[in-house]
Design a protein that fits this description.
The complex is a heterodimer of chains A (about 210) and B (about 230).
Chain A lengths: L1 H20 L2 H19 L6 H22 L2 H5 L2 H7 L5 H29 L5 H25 L8 H22 L4 H26 L2
Chain B lengths: L8 H22 L12 H29 L4 H31 L8 H21 L5 H28 L8 E2 L2 E2 L3 H40 L1
Antiparallel strand pairs in B: 1-2
Helix pairs in contact in B: 1-6, 2-3, 2-5, 2-6, 3-4, 3-5, 3-6, 4-5
The chains are: A mainly alpha (about 210), B mainly alpha (about 230).
């Protein structure tokens, strides 16, 4: 119960910060629209719908990267992280709360991006939406973890995409598979498996990253 | 300093020299030509041995990482790093030998339908990022922790990526090992087993050489600060 309250308080802090500063979400929205326009012009005139579907996943991952790279920047700038680590709460709550906040931003961006994609390119089916939802979970759990590591390094924003993209390749495969095949069950199952596996791993390992 | 019943380095080096020479002799002069692929199939003995060794190195790196996080083994961090480093070297060799084999078998330097090759590319990218991560954090307990955590991520990524890549395409990799065991016999099996042993012993020797060097370096630095 205590754990849930901690996670709730930390998530609320992040959402409140975003509501007041409006740092992340507007830039994500602008970015995803710009990416769609870039994609339109980078696809040859008579390319198939399948190619556009694949590019949707590129847009989602890159938009998420935008949020993930910034996820722990406020904590670093104000040195909040030290205080959070000292606070008498389970350290994994910090990761879980940040993942939930990032998930909220990403979902909010997608609520705009998916209809826009349907408008610009072609309609999307239920399996794609389910795939996006499942992939979002994986992106946010793993991505937040990577973001927390990245702020501890000298390379900072540079290291997050390098670490995150190889880890996200299975998500892309699952997501693209779910959106293009007729029977997406196996791909959706795979995405759920990925989410579960990496969420457990991040949950267990987060403490070691933020403490010495 | 881990001095528990370890084989001396010169003996290891000698053993790898003998084994590698025997493996080369067996592969090139004793093992018969493949009926289907001819002479070029002989790269298989190295490709598969190196791939298996690379997996083992990544596994060893993760195991040492676990020892670091769990038991706080004082040298486990360095051992984990060295094992991953060897894994990346052998992983690069897998990419190169696989690429050559693909060129001869299918006429292209790179084939996306080759699961193992794609998997090694993903792993190579991940572990390359691991190095960047490790070298952009100040040496100390936090760096050891972070490295250990990502070494563990790596071994979870192996089966997950493998499953994903397998899901994404049909299998056209020659299936040498089936559920009924290896489907070859005689000299081919002998040549494979000897080359596998040779690559494993070579990898272990290289691991020990690098580890010894790194530990010496560490001690030298400690003595300088005294």
């Amino acid at each position: 119960m205590r754990y849930a309250a901690d996670v709730g308080a930390l998530t609320r802090k992040d959402l409140l910060l975003e509501l007041r500063a409006r740092d992340t979400l507007p830039s994500m929205l602008l970015f995803v629209v710009a990416v769609f326009v870039v994609f339109h012009f980078s696809l040859p005139a008579k390319s198939s719908d399948l190619a556009a579907t694949g590019l949707l996943w590129v847009a989602i991952v890159f938009t998420a990267l935008l949020a993930l790279g910034r996820a722990f920047v406020p904590e670093r700038e104000q040195r909040v992280m030290d205080a959070l680590v000292l606070a008498p709460c389970d350290r994994s709550a910090i990761w879980l709360a940040k993942s939930l906040a990032t998930l909220t931003f990403l979902a909010a961006a997608e609520v705009v991006a998916l209809p826009l994609f349907a408008l610009f390119f072609h309609g999307i089916n239920g399996a794609t939406v389910a795939g996006v939802a499942l992939a979002d979970l994986g992106i946010c759990t793993v991505g937040t973890f990577v973001g927390a590591t990245a702020v501890l390094t000298r390379a900072r924003e540079l290291i997050a995409p390098l670490l995150f993209l190889p880890l996200a390749i299975p998500l892309i495969i699952g997501g693209v598979g779910a959106s293009v095949v007729a029977a997406p069950g196996r791909y959706l199952g795979f995405l759920a498996l990925y989410d579960l596996l990496f969420a457990l791993l991040c949950w267990a390992a987060f403490e070691y990253v933020v403490t010495e | 300093m881990g001095r528990r019943h370890r084989l001396p380095l010169p003996a290891l080096a000698g053993a790898s020299l003998v084994l590698v020479t025997t493996a080369l002799a067996l592969v090139f002069f004793v093992a018969p030509n493949d009926a289907d692929q001819g002479f070029s199939q002989r790269i298989f003995y190295f490709h598969v041995s190196v791939a298996f060794t690379a997996y083992l190195c990544f596994g060893a790196g993760a195991w040492k990482a676990l020892r670091h996080l769990w038991k706080r083994d004082p040298h486990a961090d360095l051992e984990s790093y060295v094992a991953v480093h060897q894994g990346v070297i052998f992983g690069a060799l897998v990419l190169i030998t696989g690429s050559i084999w693909a060129r001869i078998s299918w006429g292209h330097w790179w084939v996306w339908s080759e699961n193992q090759l794609v998997l090694f590319l993903v792993l190579f990218l991940f572990y390359a990022a691991y190095f960047m991560l490790r070298f952009s954090v100040e040496p100390g307990p936090q760096r050891a922790n972070i490295s250990a955590v990502y070494a563990l991520f790596g071994v979870v990524l192996v089966p997950v990526s493998f499953l994903a890549i397998r899901l994404s395409q049909r299998l056209i990799h020659p299936q040498v090992f089936t559920r009924h065991g290896a489907n070859f016999g005689g000299w081919i099996l002998a040549a494979y087993l000897v080359s596998q042993a040779a690559v494993l012993v070579l990898a272990y020797t290289l691991y020990r050489v690098e580890l010894t060097g790194k530990l010496l370096d560490l001690r030298l630095r400690e003595m300088r600060t005294l």
